[in-house]
Automatic annotation (TrEMBL):
Residues 4-295 form the FAD/NAD(P)-binding domain. It comes from the Bacteria. Transmembrane segments: none annotated. PANTHER family: FAD-DEPENDENT PYRIDINE NUCLEOTIDE-DISULPHIDE OXIDOREDUCTASE, PTHR43755. The lineage of its organism: Bacteria, Bacillati, Actinomycetota, Actinomycetes, Jiangellales. Signal peptide: none annotated. InterPro entries: FAD/NAD-bd_sf, FAD/NAD-binding_dom, SQRD. GO terms for molecular function: oxidoreductase activity. This is FAD-dependent oxidoreductase. Pfam families: Pyr_redox_2.
């Protein structure tokens, strides 16, 4: 009987894992994707959405045609229960049995980390499509009645790249609207120093980011915890509250409830501790990739910072998981090993009409090489990356780099 691989989630991790497993076994496997959203979302472009530079339809595409074309079954539903002992998932009241499960359910915002962030006028985040649309509505209101702007990443956040990108795009937009000289812009972060990025920093990074901020006239407030958002004020640890008319804050991420609900599967944040094969530490026939997989970091900071689980490592993890599932189906031991920390860091940070390319031999230290390359070519690279990635994912060409 053909083995059944069930994938939860249809974005960077889920789409890649589902199509790769199908490919690894030359089609001789039943693969099904269950995803809460029926569209793929290119999250890196959410930084442009509030400014009207992208519309939702520019950065999403429907999953069903891509999956169907590759003979992968697609169910548009939220998984509500995983029974790891019975190897069964429930979604929209229907039960789906599996031989191997891949959890690629990503993140949800832990908005409770910053009281008031979820429901205070003028304060937004941009980490989901709905949030970014909402932040765009706020931005248009702000333009009618401008005032101080805060962009930041809270304690426990890991997606610092997005915070920096939004900060520099904000600076660019303020200039475009003739507001740059009239509106103070402040970057507030849990990072111990500028350019830490949740990966411990890279050589020259702090200096480069400091230079960028000075050039743009942006004030930096580092190593603070955000205590509360109330209308027009952000309370932070050890300082006077900061004023804002418009604030965009990246919160920490947490895992989905369906993952938390499985005994012994997830950590306290709802992420799945994994081996370097991406098998769950608790259940060898359950894999977790991307944001859903837990990562432990080799440092502690005065204010907690998370790790950026970006698109590139997510795809690598999905490929490793797919190869290992294929090995298990062939009756072999999972043979591909690649811990998160060993995956190269490849990231392009956009700054409106400029940017920084971030390259390192490993996501986490100890590293042999790490470099930040600033310049307008990085803005071009991000535009190319967006177009290329959406084309690649829409066609299901997951074997391309
Ligand atoms: C604003 C922003 C900017 C970013 N910029 C970059 C960048 O420039 N470069 C980069 O490499 N990375 C970037 N990232 C990170 C990148 O988006 C993530 O690495 C990537 O989204 C992780 O993919 P994933 O598949 O693990 O999770 P997600 O993208 O979160 O996908 C989760 C999937 O699971 C589904 N799902 C959730 N719950 C359930 C459920 N209960 N049942 C079934 N399905 C479920 C969702 O519908 C979705 O399909 C950025 C992220 C953000 C938020």
């Amino acid at each position: 009987m053909r083995k059944r691989v069930l994938v939860l989630g249809g974005n960077f991790g889920g789409l890649t894992a589902a199509l790769s497993v199908k490919h690894e076994l030359q089609g001789d496997v039943d693969v099904r994707v269950i995803a809460a959203s029926d569209r793929f979302l290119f999250n890196p472009s959410l930084i442009w959405l509030p400014f009207g530079k992208r519309r939702p339809q520019d950065i999403t595409f429907p999953l069903a045609p891509t999956l169907t074309e590759h003979d992968v079954d697609f169910v548009h539903a939220s998984a509500t229960r995983i029974d790891a002992a019975a190897k069964r998932v429930t979604a929209a009241g229907v039960e789906y049995d599996y031989d191997y499960l891949v959890i690629a359910t990503g993140y949800r915002n832990a908005m409770g980390a910053v009281p008031g962030l979820a429901d205070t006028d003028g304060a937004y985040t941009i980490t989901t499509l709905e949030d970014a649309i909402h932040a765009g509505e706020g931005w248009r209101r702000f333009l009618q009645n401008p005032g101080p702007v805060i962009v930041g990443a809270s304690q426990g956040a890991g997606c610092f790249g997005a915070a920096y990108e939004f900060l520099f795009n904000m600076s660019y937009q303020l200039r475009r609207f003739g507001l740059k000289k009239h509106v103070p812009l402040t970057y507030v972060t849990a990072e111990p120093f500028l350019g830490h990025f949740g990966i411990g920093g890279l050589p020259g990074g702090e200096r480069l980011l400091g230079m960028f901020l000075r050039k743009e006239g942006i004030t930096a407030v580092t190593e603070v915890a955000m205590e509360e958002v109330v209308e027009g004020k952000l309370a932070v640890s050890g300082r006077e509250p900061l004023d804002f008319a418009y604030a965009v804050i990246i919160p920490p991420f947490e895992g989905q409830d369906v993952v938390r609900g499985v005994p012994g599967l997830a950590d306290e944040k709802g992420f799945v501790p994994v081996r370097d094969t991406y098998q769950s530490a608790a259940y060898p026939d359950v894999y977790a990739v991307g944001v859903a997989a837990a990562v432990s970091v080799p440092w502690t900071t005065a204010v907690p910072v998370g790790v950026p689980k970006t698109g590139f490592p997510t795809e690598v993890q999905a490929h490793v998981a797919a190869e290992n599932i294929a090995s298990q189906i062939r009756g072999k031991e999972p043979g591909r090993h690649k811990a998160f920390g060993e995956i190269p860091a490849v990231c392009v940070m956009d700054a409106g009409n400029n940017g920084v390319m971030i390259l390192a031999d490993r996501m986490l230290p100890p590293r042999k090489a790490g470099v930040l390359i600033p310049g307008p070519q990085s803005h071009g690279a991000k535009l190319l990356f967006e177009k290329y990635f959406l084309w690649k994912a829409r066609h299901g060409y997951v074997r391309l780099p």
